[in-house]
Amino acid sequence: MAGEILVTGSTGFIGSRLVDTLVGQGRRVRVLLRPESRGGSSLQCRAGVEEAFAAYGDTEALGRAVSGVASIIHLAGVTKAVNEAGFIEGNVTPVKNLLEAVKRHNPWLRRFLHISSLAAMGPATSPSPGVRETDMPRPVSAYGRSKLLGEEAAQRYTGRIPLTIVRPPAVYGPGDRDILEVFKMMKNGYLLSAGSGKLQRFSMIHVDDLICGMLLALDSQTAAGRDYFITSPRGYAWDELIGAARPALGFGPLLRINLPKPLAFGLGAVLGGVAKLTRRPALINQDKARELVQDYWVCSPEKAMRELGFTASTPLAKGVAETLRWYQLKGWL
Ligand SMILES: NC(=O)c1ccc[n+]([C@@H]2O[C@H](COP(=O)([O-])OP(=O)(O)OC[C@H]3O[C@@H](n4cnc5c(N)ncnc54)[C@H](OP(=O)(O)O)[C@@H]3O)[C@@H](O)[C@H]2O)c1
Questions:
Q1: What pLDDT, in 10s, does the model give residues 206-229?
Q2: Which of 201, 216, 238, 315 has its CA at a distance of 20 to 30 angstroms from the CA of residue 192?
Q3: How far is the CA of 138 from the centre of ligand 1 (A)?
Q4: Domains in the chain: ranges and CATH
């Protein structure tokens, strides 16, 4: 899609990679920066990147930020928060306020690409084919509920603003700090998981494949008013991720520790309590435990393949190897 693209959440993991890709493709980019946005980011003063400063509560500044752009990719959001209100503040209020600003200041916007999450739909009941776009949403966590509320807030503008929703599963790649924790465990010779003991499966997508799918959705005329999982061809088992990481990390047999559900919830309760007292998001609380114990975080790529011609082209082994090399070069691992 020609014309300038406004990107929110541009200082984050996916956002910074997205801006690099857009600039590399010669597209005109404007980034929305909040007062809290990380200063000194590599995006600052970059050729081809215009900056718009706005808090999501500042109607006038938001109006200026959305004015004149052809499309918006709304990536900003929070994956960790102390409580439900924190998730609403990060995942619902910004969508509402942005779309209200678009309605007033840019009614000719050609596309609003809203990045939600598999968490908004919840886990699958079987490993294949996984959750589909037509399934009933069943989020299991405060994060997932807030992402679903964000989608619903965006859908209220249907008919006035051309909206496309993209739902990624777990995203990995250079710059990610969440799955990094899993690789750190492996490097240290163990892997902690939680659940029923069934063979867990999870969809995962390399950040560059996700960006490719997002841009196909942005540029597709027929994607307006539709939603897509942009995901791997299938769900992976832990053993496949371990196998992909082993050559780069060089670990031997791993100590596998699976926390049974009651233990995971108990640990979540304790760590969640500490987090509330310290007012810092917990690594695991009862809410996160509810996500961790699910058997199948799997979604189907079929609709995106059929309608957008999207296929995640990075094999897991190659994507993981490159990511690990990046972590090692940066001294993160
Ligand atoms: N990473 C994944 O595995 C994954 C999977 C599925 C879906 N997603 C979704 O993809 C999006 C980007 O994820 P990410 O991994 O790139 O996250 P990230 O690295 O945490 O970046 C998110 C960005 O959102 C902005 N932000 C932070 N707190 C905010 C708040 N309270 N209100 C408004 N904006 C706030 C910040 O950008 P600015 O400071 O520039 O505003 C931040 O850099 C999120 O919407 C997330 O839900 C991610």
A1: 999 999 999 999 999 999 999 999
A2: 315
A3: 22
A4: 5-172+204-232+298-313 (3.40.50.720)
